[in-house]
Design goal:
With 188 residues, the chain is α+β, with helices and mostly antiparallel strands. Helices cover 21% and strands 42% of the residues. The strands form 2 sheets. Strands 1, 3, 4, 6, 9 and 11 form a 6-stranded antiparallel beta sheet that branches. A 5-stranded antiparallel beta sheet has the order 2-5-10-7-8, with no helix packed on it. Strand 7 and strand 8 form a beta hairpin. The longest helix is centred in the C-terminal third of the chain and has 21 residues. It starts with a helix and ends with a helix.
Length: 188
Amino acid sequence: MISFSRTLKTLCVLCFASFALSAQATQVSGFTGDNAISTWTVGGSTSGHVETGGAPTSIVLSEPDGGPFGFNETTFTKIAETSGTFSFHWDMTTDDPCCSGLSVFNGSRSVLFDEPCCSTFSASGDYSMSVTAGDVIGWGVYSTDTCCGPDRFTISALSAPSDVPEPATIALLGLGLFGFTATRRRKK
């Protein structure tokens, strides 16, 4: 017959092994955990801004109406902690009839959407790409004239790689610690 103590020790080992195996990269949805607003950096060359009041569901990148003529970009970026998939949904509205758009950082900067000159409209889309740990990920909203109306890009449905273990893993770790403690107390 297997002793209670041996059963708990086995349970502890299994729980810790499960935690170690599942502590690999997971996907985090929204601006939470490893992707919380505080982990991102606002940068760029203009007075544009990032509205974070909609977090953890969404953020809004805005390029202002008015400012220096020429290429201006406001960025919101971070370093990918692990390799995985970086995906999101974007919606754009503008009253600026000339040359603005959204760039995405996925290891390097590339244009995701470039508004045709001389048009006022809205657009939307989805984006998904593999990234490697250490890549810069994020967005930049840009304008070449900063006149005639602001540009607004709403980013939502964010999914990015993270080292944060899922809740079931944390529960298994807790169960393992409970078993370990019970075993130690039983020996005394």
